[in-house]
């Protein structure tokens, strides 16, 4: 059997839709490689990708008959069963958004059509004497060769992720279950506890011996990710009024990086934060024992855009009319309503958080490893940064330090420019940074969101240092060295 342009076209559609689903849903939104609960799903993905790698290579360069055609048919049928198992596993382990379900439906219909068109040719080829011959299809051969290489590499990446998650699971799956009745002294409620910073914070709080409650829209995934020692609630109304909660950490909110800041996206960014803070306020009001402290995350974007090299401490003013500043002001204003109820409020203003399992670092590190680290614009813009260990350390410090209230900058004491950061990141992998990205394409493509990349804030952690916090990673060289290991 030899592939036709129609079959190649349909297979291309299937390939591109599958790649989009993998990148958009599995990587950016679900972050499957960081979820302990996703081990089984990643195993299925790895098997399916390995099958596609073989099929793409075969379709690109071979004409097959007899038993070879039977083998190809078996791989196609096997992929269908793996996909069915994947659908069942997704329903068991996580909550799929409507768009992902719709895309899966389209992929299923497309794959069924592909099988329907392939079946007659495979049946006819299977009746022939077994043979395998080289078949060149021009650009199709090269496109599917690259596709084969890509999915095989992704299959290996998923296998490595499964092994890593299996090791993490050993530290959480044997922990004793926490039930609501056991919630008592030294209890911390974390909203956004399954995110990049939140999951790291929860793990540290559990290791400290604290009891932890986590608010999550996906309780099944949260329990699998965080372990059975964490009490997961889907809404704060599920927490009984008699529950003693000593501290609340609010990290909830849609990711600030991603889609451009259209009017609709801005509403999502604002509402995803204020709705949770409204729920937190109502919870504090009805609790019999009100929390001692609320730590609420905004960002150094509070300061907006500042010309010159003025050092910004916590007393610096906001920048009205600038979206990132207005968003942070709204967050902090909503959080500080809890002060009227007798709860101390500390407003965390983090810079760019550096860590392996999320944030900007993984993609930046990959580019640096490949020698593709780029200086953005002039590169002179300040880049306020902090290691993940220190942002979680500062949150825990804010919980336990009564003198720390109001805003505090969660940034490292060493201030660097974007160019210096890029060069240091490249050097941590033994590379050099020689690429430059002009500012105008980023401003044209990203609009106001490009400010996060091209206009920084020269922020100093005055309150954190004055309150006695000692940084684990105070210098950029040391922080990057710890991450590059």
From TrEMBL:
Keyword Membrane annotated: yes
Q: Does the keyword Transmembrane apply?
A: yes
Q: Which UniProt keywords apply?
A: Membrane, Transmembrane, Transmembrane helix
State one Pfam family annotation: DUF1731
Q: What is this protein called?
A: TIGR01777 family protein
Q: Where is the DUF1731 domain?
A: 437-483
InterPro entries linked = DUF1731 (IPR013549), Epimerase_deHydtase (IPR001509), NAD(P)-bd_dom_sf (IPR036291), SDR39U1 (IPR010099)
Domain spans labelled NAD-dependent epimerase/dehydratase: 188-403
Q: Which residues form a coiled coil?
A: none
What family does this chain come from, according to its entry? Belongs to the NAD(P)-dependent epimerase/dehydratase family. SDR39U1 subfamily.
Residue intervals passing through the bilayer:
45-62, 101-119, 139-160
Q: Which organism is it from?
A: Diaphorobacter ruginosibacter
């Amino acid at each position: 059997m030899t592939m036709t342009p129609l079959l190649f076209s349909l297979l291309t559609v299937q390939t591109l839709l599958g790649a989009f689903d993998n990148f958009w849903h599995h990587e950016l939104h679900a972050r499957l490689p960081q979820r302990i609960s996703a081990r089984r799903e990643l195993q299925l993905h790895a098997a399916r990708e390995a099958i596609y790698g073989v099929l793409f290579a075969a379709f690109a360069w071979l004409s097959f008959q007899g038993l070879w055609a039977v083998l190809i048919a078996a791989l196609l049928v096997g992929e269908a069963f793996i996909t069915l198992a994947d659908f069942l596993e997704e329903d068991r382990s996580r909550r799929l958004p409507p768009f992902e379900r719709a895309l899966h439906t389209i992929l299923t219909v497309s794959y069924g059509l592909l099988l329907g068109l392939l079946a007659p040719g495979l049946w006819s080829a299977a009746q022939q004497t077994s043979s395998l011959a080289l078949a060149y299809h021009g650009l199709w051969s090269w496109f599917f060769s690259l596709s084969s290489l890509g999915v095989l590499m992704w299959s290996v990446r998923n296998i490595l992720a499964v092994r890593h998650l299996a090791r993490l699971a050993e530290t959480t799956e044997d922990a004793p279950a926490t039930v609501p009745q056991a919630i008592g002294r030294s209890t911390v409620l974390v909203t956004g506890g399954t995110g990049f910073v939140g999951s790291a914070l929860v793990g540290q709080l559990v290791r400290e011996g604290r009891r932890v409650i986590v608010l999550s829209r996906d309780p099944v995934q949260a329990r699998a990710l965080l372990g059975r020692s964490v009490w997961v609630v889907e809404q704060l109304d599920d927490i009984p009024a008699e529950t003693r909660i000593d501290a609340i950490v609010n990290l909830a909110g849609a990711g600030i990086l991603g889609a451009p800041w259209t009017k609709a996206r801005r509403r999502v960014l604002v509402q995803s934060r204020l709705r949770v803070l409204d729920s937190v306020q109502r919870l504090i009001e009805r609790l019999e024992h009100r929390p001692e402290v609320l730590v609420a995350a905004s960002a150094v974007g509070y300061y907006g855009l500042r010309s010159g090299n003025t050092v910004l401490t916590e007393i610096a003013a906001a920048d009205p009319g600038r979206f990132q500043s207005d968003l942070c002001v709204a967050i902090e204003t909503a959080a500080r309503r809890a002060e009227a109820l007798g709860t101390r409020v500390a407003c965390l203003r983090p810079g760019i958080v550096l860590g392996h399992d999320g944030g900007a670092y993984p993609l930046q590190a990959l580019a640096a490893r490949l020698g593709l680290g780029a200086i953005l614009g002039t590169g002179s813009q300040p880049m306020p940064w902090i290691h993940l260990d220190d942002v979680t350390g500062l949150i825990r410090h804010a919980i336990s330090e009564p003198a720390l209230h109001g805003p505090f900058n969660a940034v490292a004491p060493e201030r660097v420019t974007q160019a210096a950061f890029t060069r240091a990141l490249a050097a941590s992998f033994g590379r050099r940074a020689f690429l430059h990205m002009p500012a105008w394409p980023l401003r044209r493509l990203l609009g106001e969101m490009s400010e996060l990349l091209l206009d920084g804030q020269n922020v100093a952690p005055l309150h954190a240092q004055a309150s006695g916090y000692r940084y684990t990673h105070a210098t950029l060289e040391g922080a990057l060295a710890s991450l590059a290991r």
